[in-house]
Amino acid sequence: TINTNLTGMMNTCATVLPYMDKQQLGKGGLIVNVTSVVGLDPSPVFCAYSASKFGVIGFTRSLADPLYYTQNGVAVMAVCCGPTKMFVDRELTAFLSYGQPFVDRLRTAPCQSVTICAKNIVKAIECTENG
């Protein structure tokens, strides 16, 4: 979970930044890191997932700091998506077994479709605010 959600995102940013950085090869731009509302508040049943998403938000906020943005012209934002139908249809396992009844109830919670989620990400990109 940490390798995919956090380390993978950090490696991707490190790879693309030289091509976007105005002081190197680029013309500026926007990096959009997709994260989750579970990264905004602790999730007692998805501990590792929550920690990875907290990390994405912290990394994004740090990289979006004016210290970097004024130098490289690369805006960075995190989009915190809520539960999607695709997510809750997967096999979900609580970090500790006694949290599983909560996880099972999540299947009946209101969810957005992947299409609605994607449309909201596009709206966020159109705003192109750093941070």
TrEMBL record:
Origin: domain of life: Eukaryota
Q: Does the keyword tRNA processing apply?
A: no
GO terms for cellular component: cytoplasm
- One GO molecular function term? oxidoreductase activity
Q: Which UniProt keywords apply?
A: Oxidoreductase
* Database matches in SUPFAM superfamilies: NAD(P)-binding Rossmann-fold domains (SSF51735)
Cross-referenced InterPro entries: ADH-rel, NAD(P)-bd_dom_sf, Sc_DH/Rdtase_CS, SDR_fam
Q: Pfam families this protein is in?
A: adh_short (PF00106)
Q: What family does the database annotate?
A: Belongs to the short-chain dehydrogenases/reductases (SDR) family.
- PANTHER family reported in the protein's UniProt record: 15-HYDROXYPROSTAGLANDIN DEHYDROGENASE [NAD(+)], ALCOHOL DEHYDROGENASE-RELATED
**What name appears for this protein in its UniProt entry?**
Alcohol dehydrogenase-related 31 kDa protein
- Native species of this protein? Drosophila funebris
